[in-house]
Amino acid sequence: MSLLLSACATTLERQEEVRTANQHYELGVQYLDQARYTLAISEFTRALSQLSEAEDACKRSERCEIEDPAAFKHKMAVIHTSRAYAYLKFGGQHQNVLADTRAAILLRPDLPEPYLYLGLIHLQMDNPDSVWKAYQALVPRDQRLAQELYRLYTLKYGNQ
User: Fold this and answer.
1) How far apart are CA 55 and CA 69, in angstroms?
2) Is residue 143 domain-shared with residue 77, that is, in the same domain?
3) How far is Cα 58 from Cα 10, in angstroms, rounded to an integer?
4) Over the range 65-104, which residues count as b (16 or more CB within 10 Å of their CB) and which as e?
5) CB 14, CB 58: distance < 8 Å
6) Same domain, 149 and 76
7) Are residues 26 and 59 in the same domain?
8) Collapsed DSSP state (helix, strand, coil) of residue 8
9) Residues 157, 92 share a domain
10) Are residues 14 and 55 in the same domain?
11) Nearest 10 degrees: Cα torsion 15, 82, 26, 78
12) Do 127 and 52 sit in the same domain of this protein?
């Protein structure tokens, strides 16, 4: 993914941090596809750490700036969302799923997946009001995902 190489620009050192973050992200996706959730979580965490370091260094330096802040936020949100999904699949990680979905929503409130994962974790935690709120937030973002969350909601709580 060259998205971040164009998103965080000027110094070679920052570009290398971003390149490394992308490698961690891609490896995390591979582990996720293999249902190796602990390893996926670890790689997504490394990616987020690298990107945060690059962003902090850019903020401290006059010679470095993020060329495309929207693309940078998008990538951070995608990684948070991916890690939330890995935590969700791993199980027993309610607070971590909540933290990552909320972080993703703060960065990119238009993305549908964080709302789905938020709804799913609240289903696991038996919080029907929170599931319903996640469903309502999901409806305008992705009808198909919203219908699936609604189906799971009605299976557990009945029709509302």
Assistant:
1) 10
2) no
3) 9
4) ebeeeeebbbbbbbbbbbbbbbbbebeebeebbbebbebb
5) yes
6) no
7) yes
8) strand
9) no
10) yes
11) -40
12) no
CA distances 115 to 48, 78, 104, 122, 153, Å, are: 20, 13, 9, 11, 14
pTM of this structure: 0.89
Q: Which residue type occupies 111? A: L
Q: How many domains does the chain have?
A: 2
Looking at residue 9, its pLDDT comes to 46
What is the distance between the alpha carbons of residues 159 and 29, in angstroms, rounded to a whole number?
36
- The single residue listed with the structure tokens 């964080």 is 114
pLDDT tens-digit series, residues 52-93: 888 887 777 666 666 778 888 999 999 999 999 999 999 999
Residues 80 and 117 in one domain: no
Residue type, 152: L
19 with 75, same domain: the answer is yes
Give pLDDT tens digits for 10-62.
456 677 888 899 999 999 999 999 999 999 999 999 999 999 888 887 777 66
